[in-house]
Amino acid sequence: MRRIRPVQLCRSWLFLEGANEAVLQRAASGDADVLIHELEDFTPPNLRPKARMLAPDLYASWREAGRVVAVRVNPLDQDGIDDLAAVMRGRPDIVALPKVAEPGHVAQLDAAVTRFERDYGIAEGSTALLPNIEFARGLVQTGAIAAVSKRVTACLLAAEDLAADLGAERDIDSIELAYCRQRFIVECRAANVVAVDCPYTWSDAPGVERDTRWARRLGYAAKSLVDPSHAVIVNGVLTPDDNEMRRARDIVTAFEAARAQGGARAEHEGSLIEVPTYSTAKRLIARGEALREFERLTPA
């Protein structure tokens, strides 16, 4: 029976050109946790019929490789319904919708996905939704967007369209999107959905590592990407390493020992360990153990 990686353990979310068969087939042997068949910006309108036709067999091969299968359709008032009619035959795990600016956009997608689940004999409610937040109006309504459907388990923040909507000037340090990324994770955390950070849209490996480390510091545990070679870097940064796990266990041990002796807090390596730090350490340990356990139980 296929083991689906839980959305909370999906670190790297890779967008792939929808009609590029060579790229799509290679992706299954790569490192990304989630493969996104991208029918919007990465697929010119004249190639969308071809991309749709690829979906059933492509998704089966991705599933066989143990990947989470996702597709990003076009806005529903454009080519989105035609996209869904084809790709839902492939039973994707996740359907992403671009340019979500209103809760109603997700409500419409939920209704359309439900209809195709019924038509194609798919278990109703089994397809998750991934709203893509790409405009200022969507950003300030992220909580409401996430809450409109029980299918929404994660939201994804875009970079280029959001910067364009803001009139921001893009640069490699992404300072122009710093507030948006901070606001977005707060909104997602309040709505209890996974926040998928925006992609690093430059090619250098040091840059994507630096950008992912900054995202992790904010609290992100997932990041989208557009370069397959970035997946191994993103996964590495977003997976607690052995040193981090050891330090977290030391913090837990020190705090629990102090509490056992009636202390309110503990001192460890020059830091005063209080309840929030103790709780953070326990969460890191739980996440690291869950990631390791999933990999151990999943055949390569």
TrEMBL record:
Amino acids binding substrate: R72, E134
Keywords: Lyase, Magnesium, Metal-binding
Cofactor entry: Mg(2+)
MF annotations from Gene Ontology: lyase activity; magnesium ion binding
HpcH/HpaI aldolase/citrate lyase domain segment(s): 11-228
GTP-binding listed as a keyword: no
Binding site for Mg(2+): E134, D161
GO biological process: oxaloacetate metabolic process
Domain of life: Bacteria
Recorded family membership: Belongs to the HpcH/HpaI aldolase family.
PANTHER family in alphabetical order: HPCH_HPAI ALDOLASE_CITRATE LYASE DOMAIN-CONTAINING PROTEIN, LYASE BETA SUBUNIT, PUTATIVE (AFU_ORTHOLOGUE AFUA_4G13030)-RELATED
The protein's name in its UniProt record: Citrate lyase subunit beta / citryl-CoA lyase
Naturally occurring in which organism (per UniProt): Bradyrhizobium lablabi
